[in-house]
């Protein structure tokens, strides 16, 4: 199933915007208090909560945020369809480490690292919905775009020729979060003539 489209940028978006990572861990605790833990997935799902303080409904005057958001939600058929969302605070990286060449490997997963100042270099997370790849480097040397391709549905970077052994592969790129709405129903409130609001719109990232 292909993405419905890009989540629309609307002027009525208010503060605050909530974003949070979610893992899933199964825990079995013995009578002694000792635990066995199993991690169901190694990378988080990201949940976003947006508040729209106003959504105008006056198409004749050129203000149609309500119908734009409603139309997008309806196009997704609630929680069924997926879409692309750009998080203004988390949508691009520069000089991102992707791996080291070994003269055999041709495919590298785009990723972004959170907390690079931490011991161990931080937490690397795959990027499966790339937007624009600005540049790819071998040991800091820019490579020709004709020497590689990027799959927009998986974020896999494929080279025509394997990077030589020992060369560090890095990249500059921007990306989306591929998401779906959490619920199949949301309530829009008409609080004034031609003015509506949506107090809570939640969606969560999905994996391909």
Helix content: under 10%
How many domain regions? 2
H/E series: EEEEHEEEEEEEEEEEEE
Mean pLDDT: 95
Rounded Rg: 21 Å
Task: Give the oligomer, counting copies of the same chain as homo and different chains as hetero.
Answer: single chain
Q: What's the end-to-end separation, in Å?
A: 10 Å
Write the layout of secondary structure elements.
Blueprint: E1 18-22, E2 25-29, E3 35-39, E4 45-56, H1 65-76, E5 83-85, E6 92-100, E7 107-109, E8 111-114, E9 123-126, E10 130-138, E11 141-142, E12 148-150, E13 156-159, E14 168-175, E15 177-181, E16 189-192, E17 195-205
Written account of the structure:
The protein is mostly beta strands. It folds into two domains: 18-86 and 178-205, no CATH class; 92-175, no CATH class. The chain is 6% helix and 46% strand. Strands 1, 4, 5, 15, 16 and 17 form a six-stranded antiparallel beta sheet that branches. Strands 6-14-10-11 form a four-stranded antiparallel beta sheet, with no helix packed on it. The protein is globular, with a radius of gyration of 21 Å. The N and C termini lie close together (10 Å). 17% of the residues are buried. The mean pLDDT is 95.
């Amino acid at each position: 199933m292909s993405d419905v489209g890009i989540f629309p940028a609307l002027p009525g978006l208010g503060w605050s915007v909530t974003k949070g990572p979610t893992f899933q861990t199964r825990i079995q605790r013995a009578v002694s208090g000792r635990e066995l833990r199993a991690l169901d997935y190694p990378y988080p799902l990201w949940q976003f909560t947006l508040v729209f303080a106003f959504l105008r409904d006056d198409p004749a005057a050129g203000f149609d945020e309500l119908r734009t958001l409603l139309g997008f939600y309806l196009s997704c058929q609630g929680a069924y369809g997926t879409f692309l969302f750009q998080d203004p605070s988390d949508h691009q990286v520069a000089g991102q480490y992707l791996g080291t060449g070994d003269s055999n490997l041709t495919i590298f997963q785009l990723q972004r690292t959170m907390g690079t100042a931490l011991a161990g270099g931080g937490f690397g997370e795959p990027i499966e919905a790339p937007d624009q790849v600005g540049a790819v480097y071998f040991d800091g040397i820019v490579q020709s775009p004709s020497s590689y391709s990027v799959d927009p549905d998986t974020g896999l970077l494929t080279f025509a020729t394997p990077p030589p052994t020992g060369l560090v592969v890095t990249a500059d790129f921007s990306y989306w979060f591929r998401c779906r709405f959490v619920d199949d129903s949301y309530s829009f409130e008409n609080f004034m003539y031609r003015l509506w609001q949506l107090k809570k719109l939640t969606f969560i990232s999905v994996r391909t």
